[in-house]
Amino acid sequence: MTPSQTIANGPAIVTGAGSGLGRALARKLAAKGTPVAIMGRQEKALLATASAHPDLIHSFVCDVADAAAVHACTAQIVQRLGTVRILVNNAAIYPRRDILDLPQGAFMETMGINLGGMVNTVQAALPHMVGDGVGRILNVATFADMSPLPMSSEYSTSKGAARIFTRALIADIGDRFPDIVVGDWMPGMLATQMGIEDGLAPEVAAGWGAALALMHDPALTGTTFEMDREILGGSGLKRRLKAALTFSRAAKPRTITPI
Q1: H or E element: which one contains 131?
Q2: What are 209-222's pLDDT values in tens digits?
Q3: What whole-number distance in Å separates Cα of residue 180 and Cα of residue 178?
Q4: Using CA atoms, how far apart are residues 20 and 194, in angstroms rounded to an integer?
Q5: Bond before 150 cis per omega within 30 degrees
């Protein structure tokens, strides 16, 4: 997939960038010359991520579940790097716990990170994008809500709600700000702490995710990509409208050329 329009080179925010997929995404974006602000709770891990591109990756210690901290952190990012152009919501936790073994309040703590963290970063970054009417929001998603595994009630519920939030966000801003492009991306099963031992290397998946984050085609709003391929059930709003008006057949799924 070659972009018809590429968003200006950042700055980008990548959450949960202290390890795994978030680290790989930040490094891929920086390798393309994009200034990247990385958010996470562990300073040492963030500095390790930034060490690959110290001139382009800037670390900010922040708990995405803390709305006030996220807003303050985003203000620092804007002051230091300029108006946010790209937001990649990657931060998440996956506590593997049976519903009978959950400590009191643990379920909502997970919701606060996996769903609340996404809401907090969007609310903090979106006003800056709205100012110029330009932006890109890519939410890292999963099918866990469709087929939950045992001991995944917290993760599956929170990630399913996050996918609903993507659609609700588009309903709120899609018509008013068509150049703020919003969509979901599912990286697949990864060989990370949250994934599986024989999964895909996060560096491979990040090649697709970073390329998609840099895409600024309004027809991508409302799309869902899995790994390197569009899931047509989540086709973009403009694309669906055009197909209806022209009585055209369903298009083939778009694919991503990794970076």
Answers
A1: helix 116-132
A2: 999 999 999 999 99
A3: 5
A4: 9
A5: no
